[in-house]
Amino acid sequence: MKSVLVTGAAGFIGVNYVRRRLEVGDERMVALDSLTYAGNGRSLEPLVGDRLDFVNGDIRDTELVEKLIRQHDCGTIVHFAAESHVDRSISGPDAFISTNVDGTHSLLKAARNCWLSGDAMPHRFHHVSTDEVYGSLTASDPPFSEENQYQPNSPYSASKAASDHLVRAYHHTFGLDVTTTNCSNNYGPYQFPEKLIPLMIVKILHGEALPVYGDGMQIRDWLYVEDHCRAIELCLEKGVAGEVYNIGGDNERPNIEIVHSLCDMMESRILGSEALAERFPDCPASRGDSNRDLISHVTDRPGHDRRYAIDYSKAEAELGYVPEHTFSTGFERTIDWYLAEEAWWRSVMDGSYRDWIDTNYQGRG
Ligand code: NAD
Ligand code: TYD
User: Fold this and answer.
1) Is 45 known to be catalytic?
2) 3-class state of residue 123 by DSSP
3) Is 141 a catalytic residue?
4) Sorting pLDDT into bands at 50, 70 and 90, what band is 191?
């Protein structure tokens, strides 16, 4: 059986994807990740074994990618690796162009060289992208469909848009078998605490101010990561080469509502558990105060998109995709995971896991 090359497998969605495929699939996987600040080798380490190899390497290294495809007989690439945080793309766009545009192009070149030179073999390059390529909606606009014009507004979304175009071009020009999914904001276990939901969870536990950008009325369509991973599997199984599928969570909410819900749900957990109150003495709820007191409206993000919403009817009709998680089930699971996995988020935030990487992955790849 051919193997699957998963790029960015040590990041948030990549780890969830690999864990799920180990549970529900039977294929071998090669996880390729350069372990930037957002990639955590420790999330993958317990999974490495007969069905999973980990390689500490860069998607921009075309030679390495070709070597891995040939050596492990990879017939599928699932491409997650990216710089993914909008705020970082505003303070430092260069890395986004380099990884998201050049990096995706490097993978496409390697895939073409391995899969299309000589006798073409069955293959699939699946590109994981974002709804942010479509720009921003007003309150009354219909949700994004696959027909929407690309109007990226941040360096992050512009770099993802460029990568989507390259994937499309490699299909139309060279005949590479590609599919792309454009999904909405994911949340769930293993998300680096710089994105809204895990950042707010960690700040609530520490009793730190919760920075809500502007009026907090920006809307996102929150997608539980497990639903997203299932959608990718469905796309690999049933998606048509050259096609694009939008993946959403049926869960449009303004940021301030998300922050209120997190404050309240964590308050009820802490009020119900003396052990939690002892572990997190700086959390307002541990002293009987309201977590909402931490909310602080701060200067808005430059160019902040007002609303994203996804019409996933094409994925529903052609792939059989519908989200299984509701706001309530997804949020409960996420909060419970962050409360249980304090060691994980502390290690990724304080950078101590870098020592661990150096010890465990020196010279691999
Ligand atoms: P993430 O930032 O958590 O993880 C990205 C991973 O890529 C990290 O492990 C990092 O080490 C790795 N990486 C970065 N540069 C690399 C390079 N040059 N070579 C090899 N590995 C490299 O991101 P995520 O949230 O897991 O997102 C995964 C993909 O999904 C991205 O392509 C992102 O654009 C897309 N996406 C994410 C969301 C979301 O809400 N998280 C929504 C829509 C689309
Ligand atoms: P984020 O998780 O960074 O994802 P994206 O920018 O890709 O949508 O942000 C989600 C929303 O939350 C977005 O509208 C920006 C807002 N936000 C805050 O209000 N405060 C914060 O500290 C962060 C990180 C995000």
Assistant:
1) no
2) coil
3) no
4) very high
